[in-house]
Specification:
Layout lengths: L2 H9 L1 H12 L2 H17 L10 H35 L6 H15 L4 H12 L4 H8 L3 H23 L1 H5 L9
Helix pairs in contact: 2-3, 2-4, 3-4, 4-8, 6-8, 7-8
């Protein structure tokens, strides 16, 4: 991509941002997508055959970026729906068993990545709503739900690795050292 083509892209920054904002309904997201598209355009500059059509070519890059964004959003929505279905079938353990489980699981949660440990602690142990946790952590509610989902997966692996028989057979007298 020659310097004139790059200059044309820079000159059209506001139009590109406006194009994305109309399609994504979120200025911050539009700015992120635009920055990513600028980076990708530099990586894919060999696809540009006619230097004079860099703006038209970049709009195609932006359209593809919007489509990708909607696809990712659909995947997030499906993960959230699965998470909601999982919560509907949840059963609360008796208080004495809950204390034992919480102690063991809390020790194992401390071995997770810090953001996962925090998500588990705030949402599962402290009972903070996912949206409230998102606000505390400075992330979107969708991001928080995904983080909690991944933290649960990581914790499940830790429980299986640490407690083995208890995790597989549901022992009530867990003596793992966590």
């Amino acid at each position: 991509m020659d310097t004139d083509s790059v200059a044309q892209l820079v000159l059209n920054h506001r139009q590109f941002l406006s194009f994305l904002e109309r399609r994504l309904n979120d200025r911050a997201l539009a700015e992120d997508v635009l920055q990513d598209a600028f980076v990708k355009s530099l990586e894919k500059q060999d696809e540009l055959r006619d230097e004079g059509s860099s703006v038209a070519w970049f709009y195609r890059v932006l359209r593809n970026a919007v489509i990708d964004q909607y696809r990712r959003g659909g995947a997030r929505a499906r993960a959230l729906e699965a998470f909601a279905r999982e919560l509907e079938g949840a059963v609360e353990p008796p208080p004495e068993l809950e204390a034992t489980i919480c102690g063991c699981v809390s020790r194992l949660a401390d071995t997770l990545k810090p953001e996962y440990a925090d998500a588990i602690r705030r949402v599962e142990v402290d009972g903070v709503a996912v949206q409230d946790y998102a606000a505390e952590a400075g992330i979107t509610a969708n991001n928080a739900a995904v983080r909690v989902f991944r933290a649960r997966q990581a914790l499940r692996k830790q429980v299986r690795a640490s407690c083995r028989t208890c995790a597989e057979h549901g022992c009530l007298d867990c003596t793992c050292s966590g």
